[in-house]
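pls read this protein:
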Amino acid sequence: MSKHAIATSAALLLSATPVLADLSAQDVWTDWQQVYGAMGLPLTADASYADGTLTLDAVTMTTDLGGVASSTSYGSLSLTEQADGTVRINLPASMTMTTVTTIEGETLEQSIQFDQEGWTGVITQDGETRIYDFTADSLAYIFDDLVPDQGDATVGGRATLTNLVSRYVNTTSGDTLTTDQTVTADGMVLTMAADGPDSFDLSYDLGAITSEGTGTVDLANISTTSSLSDLGAVFSGDIQHSGSTLALTAMSEDGPFTLNGTSTSGRIGFDLNADTLGYEISSKGAEMAVQVSAFPLPVNLSMSELTTAIAMPMGVSETPKPFALSLAYRDLALDDALWGLFDPTGQLPRDPATLLLDLSGTAVMNIDLFGGDPEALAGLQGAPGEVKTLDLTQLRLALAGAELTGDGAVTFPSPGPLPMPVGKVNLGLTGGLGLLDKLVALGFVPQEQAAFIKGMSGVVAKPVGEDELVSEIEFTEGGGITANGLPLQ
């Protein structure tokens, strides 16, 4: 993880000074410079002070990392000291942020326009705590050419937040900064469009947005590492919305493509600690309609929940660190027109499909996935670490009248290119043989293959009811495998 990426947390790191009766504009500017400078992102400006206002012209942030030099110009802003001891942040109605990046002698320039209406920004000092209160009727980020130097094709767009209210509460104790943040907005609208042979138009609307986050970071440690794993930061938070609408139309050599979708709510969660980096993306009440030129019918589907959560080990360690994967795809339903293409006689049950999976375990990592060294990752030979334990807390797949369930736990006591598991996994299948017969009747599975599958099911599983099979798979030391006590290897 580069210092460039660590800078995404910079808004959390506007640190506080010792207890002051009043907060000065110079205090705020000095703190910003110290924090960004510690991250290897020097922040400069042409500063001038008069009548309680510090004017910052040509605000610029630079970085030079791994042969990639970058400079971003933010234009001008000012900090005004107020009679109640607070400092007001003054932003122009419109400003252009321009980034110039040089990579191996080639220069790339990108610009984003920032527009605001009804902006207020006030900084308050309360002992060792510094509070940032921001509000705005609207904030808009406008980009005319997101991917420059692509010939005649351009990609542009606009992202607008409405009725934004946010608060950052930062408290320092020595070199440790603790931050709490809350953000609300009535909604966000993102529009994008591209011209050229692969043109598209995109519109994405989010309903009411709420965000909360809290964390700590050692400011003294920022300057000594470019690795997120060694930063010593702890942070957790989430962003939720009350519903979304998506509309996409695109044109390619294969013809037109359209996608329209809605959801009733959604969430993005984030968690960073000494052992893991995790995130969760979730959407509820999703509906989607897709039309592809090469397909005769629109694909209409719905899902009550779509959740993906991952936790990845941080850093390199001789002791095992946790990891996890969770999937929840509930009640996936297709419309009857689509079912009719491959099952016109209605032989298959058309109940909504569900996939639930919860995996967790521990691993010893041989490489730092977030160490800010792309060459090390690119040159990696074999797995990035060794799995030590693996727990299957839940497996459930319900599809076309059949249901597969499972749980279990294994360990990997012997490291190596192909580590041998030791433990048990329990599996259950209901309605599987009936589904197989229906697939044979529809012509999707040859009769002889179905007979082979049924024969193998008698070897690895045992019946416990009508069209209900269970199997206990046991892995023993030395590579042995049994199914319900019958040796398989």
About this structure: The chain has three domains: 1-218, 243-400, 415-489. Residues 25-38 form the longest helix (14 residues). The two ends are 43 Å apart (CA to CA).
